[in-house]
Design a protein that fits this description.
By secondary structure, the chain is mainly β. It has two helices and 15 strands. The strands form four sheets. The protein has a six-stranded antiparallel sheet with strand order 1-2-10-7-12-5, with no helix packed on it. Strands 9-8-11-6-13 form a five-stranded antiparallel sheet, with no helix packed on it. It has a two-stranded antiparallel sheet with strand order 3-4. The chain is globular. The two termini are 29 Å apart. About 3% of the residues have low confidence.
Length: 196
């Protein structure tokens, strides 16, 4: 598995190696060892899946606050998405910035998003499935979010003029300016200094 840093070094892009022959292909889609080789010791405890019926569906930006903050490993197994990770760690040199990557069933890329980031995605095709691993249980009392269309963030969800399909719950999310300081990071000290 190929592991690359993104514009925000704590967010990683993982690309499985595909072995193809006349029957199709084989790929290793998760490797704890590949992450450990990059200094990451995440223990995932749950797999989740979402299905979106139409292109232009936006989910997010979501995160869980401490003590149930979640690290996620996102992959698209059907269709294609624009996946977004927004740094919400106070004191981080990339606070308020985001990374955005195309994840699709075809490219098999995955995004590793540590705790301290808000996450969301938009679907680029109908009938899209997204699978993701998390390292902490769902805790509704810690559920938080940020408005996907906050002008301060200016995220291009690549909707191509389509009116986004968004849940009523997500439409009520506050803007980035109302973010509670639930994650902190000592600037210049690396990911290990970021805490919740």
């Amino acid at each position: 598995m190929k592991v690359e840093t993104t514009e925000i070094p704590d967010v990683l892009l993982l690309t499985p190696k595909r072995f193809e022959d006349s029957r199709g292909y084989f790929a290793e889609t998760y490797s704890a060892r590949a992450l450990e080789d990059h200094g990451i010791q995440t223990r995932f405890i749950q797999d989740n899946m979402s299905y979106s019926e139409r292109a232009g569906t936006v989910r997010g930006l979501h995160y869980q606050a401490p003590p149930h903050a979640q690290t996620k490993l996102i992959r698209c197994t059907r269709g294609a998405i624009i996946d977004v990770a927004l740094d919400i760690r106070i004191g981080s040199p990339t606070y308020g910035r985001y990374v955005r990557h195309l994840l699709s069933a075809e490219n098999m890329c995955q995004l590793y998003i540590p705790a301290g980031f808000a996450h969301g995605f938009s679907t680029l095709s109908d009938n899209t499935e997204v699978h993701y691993k998390v390292d902490a249980r769902y805790a509704p009392e810690c559920e938080r979010g940020i408005a996907f269309d906050d002008g301060m963030l200016g995220i291009d969800w690549r909707l191509g003029g389509i009116s986004p399909a968004v849940s009523d719950k997500d439409r009520q999310l506050p803007g980035f300016e109302h973010l509670e300081p639930e994650f902190t990071c000592i600037a210049g000290s690396g990911a290990e200094a970021c805490a919740s």
